[in-house]
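Exercise 7. Given the encoded structure of a 137-residue chain, write a plausible sequence.
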């Protein structure tokens, strides 16, 4: 079985954020890192080369594969910001409806910018998902 590529690293979160070339996306990601830190009470940690994560949990699949992953996190992509770990929030559907302009995938929520969403709803969603994952792990 291969080892996981997405593991916590000693890479500087500040350096990762500073290297985001799109100024608006960089400022959004800096604000998002602060928002997620406040919502979770956890410091940001780089997971792999591109995910800023908060907290960690251990998982084990029925297949026997296991590992550790951040509870919630985000990554700056070329055209959007991917936010991970929100699908564990008990009030998921209600929060999705209140968030604002976004796309939802199986494991992430994609936003173009913080200006297009309700950041108070996002903070509530992050906190709820984080707490839910902490109690179920």
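Solution.
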């Amino acid at each position: 079985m291969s080892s996981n590529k997405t593991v916590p690293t000693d890479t500087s979160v500040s350096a990762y954020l500073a290297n985001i070339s799109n100024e608006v996306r960089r400022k959004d990601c800096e604000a998002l890192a602060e928002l997620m830190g406040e919502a979770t009470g956890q410091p940001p940690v780089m997971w792999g080369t591109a995910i800023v994560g908060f907290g960690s949990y251990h998982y084990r699949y029925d297949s026997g594969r296991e590992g550790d992953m951040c509870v919630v996190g985000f990554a700056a992509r070329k055209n959007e910001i991917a936010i991970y770990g929100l699908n564990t929030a008990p009030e998921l559907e209600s929060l999705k409806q209140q968030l604002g302009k976004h796309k939802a995938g199986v494991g992430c929520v994609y936003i173009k910018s913080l200006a297009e969403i309700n950041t108070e709803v996002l903070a509530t969603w992050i906190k709820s998902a984080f707490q839910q994952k902490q109690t179920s792990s």
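Remark. The CA atoms of residues 85 and 94 lie 16 Å apart. Students should compare their own answers with the one above.
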